[in-house]
Amino acid sequence: MCSSSKARSPPASPDRARSTAARGAAGIINVGTCSAFGGIPNAHPNPTGAVKVEDVVSGVPVVNLSGCPVNADNLTATIVHYLTFGAFPATDEFGRPLFAYGELIHNTCPRRGHFDAGQFAVEWGDEGHRNGWCLYRLGCKGPETSHNCPSVRYNEATSWPVAAGHGCVGCSEPHFWDTMSPFYDRLPHVDTEGFEFTADRLGLTIVAATAAGFALHGVGKAVQHRVGAARDARAARAAGQEAGAPSGHPGIPGYGGHASVDGEDFSDGSDYGGSAGESDGR
Ligand code: SF4
Questions:
Q1: What residues flank ligand 1, with Cβ below 6 Å?
Q2: Among 99, 120, 233, 269, which one is most buried in terms of CB atoms within 10 A?
Q3: CA 198, CA 190: separation in Å to the nearest integer?
Q4: 61 CA to centre of ligand 1 in angstroms
Q5: pLDDT less than 70: residues of the chain
Q6: Rounded distance from Cα 143 to ligand 1 centre (Å)
Q7: Alpha-carbon distance 90 to 234, whole Å?
Q8: In this structure, which residue's CA is closest to atom 1 in ligand 1?
Q9: What are phi and psi of 190, to 5 degrees?
Q10: Ligand 1 atom nearest to 120, measured from its CA
Q11: Which has the closest alpha carbon to 152: 94, 97, 199?
């Protein structure tokens, strides 16, 4: 341990810090939700006045790798992309690379088939939970969280929260601590914009088609068309060409609001795609 009798320099003023923090930087990679969006320190009531990095720097390109923790593979890929092409990869409206945040967790989740089939865990440790059914009714925020967790996973692709039996808490979304909590309450709505709408309707469509004897070829063609349209819409939104894009993220209050499911509202205790058993109101 050492000490010094020298007086310490006063901290830089916010304006000076703002003007000098990024000086000489080729770009800024925000690693984790705190630097990308303010994270937990920025959550209400934010007693320290914490802000995201983009609020205090300017003049350099910034990319946000949100998540708590960040995914090391996504960080590596972003750095390699910059070293290879001299620029950051294409991003969404929140500055997150599309290769890592361009798809909802819900759309690639291994438990998605159970969601579409109406098979939900309703209590921790119940039969549905032990059988690996969907965690939506236990509060999973995968339907409103964009991240590639299901495919890349963590710890050298060992696992990720849903694979371990715990719902997604939405940690890679802006203001997740305020907008995604209580973490064990289910989402009041299931977002249906873009691809998710198509995928949700696909689940119901297949059930209906089976019951009614529809031709699957026709269903497949319809789905193919909707998937293509959804991809086009996402690409346009990412390029800032879609009307209203700056207003933000679908499904997050303060970022454009929730979109109801094709006019259906699940906040009354009903479930989407059938029921796994009793309704406990979650
Ligand atoms: S609600 Fe959660 S557990 Fe269920 S399919 Fe969606 S992401 Fe997976």
A1: 105-106, 109, 111-112, 115, 134-136, 140, 142-143, 162, 167-168
A2: 120
A3: 12
A4: 34
A5: 1-15, 18-19, 189-282
A6: 7
A7: 12
A8: 136
A9: -110, 120
A10: 4
A11: 97
Cα–Cα dist 182/39, whole Å:
16
Q: Which two tokens stand for residue 184?
A: 């064990």
Task: Give first-to-last CA distance, the chain, whole Å.
Answer: 54
In the prediction, which pLDDT does 20 show?
80
CA of 190 to the centre of ligand 1 (A): 11
pLDDT tens per residue, range 66-88: 999 999 999 999 999 999 999 99
**Dist. CA 3 → ligand 1 center (Å):** 54
pLDDT for position 104? 97
The Cα–Cα gap between 282 and 278 comes to 11
pTM: 0.67
Cα separation values, 229 from 1, 10, 145, 224, Å = 64, 56, 21, 9
Query: Which amino acid, one-letter code, is at 167?
Result: G
Helix (H) or strand (E) holding 20: helix 14-20
- Distance, in Å, from the CA atom of 240 to the CA atom of 162, rounded to the nearest integer, reads 32
Given a contact cutoff of 8 angstroms between Cβ atoms, the answer to whether 110 and 133 are in contact is: no
Q: Whose CA is nearest to atom 5 of ligand 1?
A: 112
- In ligand 1, which atom is closest to the CA atom of 112? 5
Per-residue pLDDT reduced to its tens digit, 222-231: 434 444 454 4
Task: Give me ligand 1 centre to Cα 139, in Å.
Answer: 9
Please, are residues 103 and 195 in contact by the beta-carbon 8 Å criterion?
A: yes
Residue pair 43/180 in contact (Cβ under 8 Å)? The answer is no
Supply the residue whose CA is at minimum distance from atom 6 of ligand 1. Answer: 106
Minimum-distance ligand 1 atom for the alpha carbon of 168: 2
How confident is the model at residue 58, as a pLDDT? 85
